Amino acid sequence: MTDRTIDEEAELILTTTTADELTGVRGDECLYCYVARMLDEHGCDNTLCAVRRALSRPARPPGHRAPGESG
Q1: pLDDT tens-digit map of 35-59
Q2: What CA–CA distance (Å, rounded) separates 1 from 42?
Q3: Residue 4 lies in a domain
Q4: Per the structure, how many domains does the chain have?
Q5: pTM above 0.70, yes or no
Q6: How far apart are CA 56 and CA 48, in angstroms?
Q7: Burial, 23: exposed, middle or buried (Cβ in 10 Å; 0-12, 13-18, 19+)?
């Protein structure tokens, strides 16, 4: 058990975890599995924020893998 409060623990997790680790595609995860995982982990607030974020990113050519992605 630690002496940190829950808000200190949450801050530690958020400052040591990148956005891609929280919301990035895992390995060979298909679109269906990715969307299902995101909805399970983050829920849906009907604001389409994930769609807007995805549309604002540069397009990747077919077969492109980000650094660290397996394939």
Answers
A1: 899 899 889 999 988 788 878 877 7
A2: 27
A3: no
A4: 1
A5: no
A6: 13
A7: middle
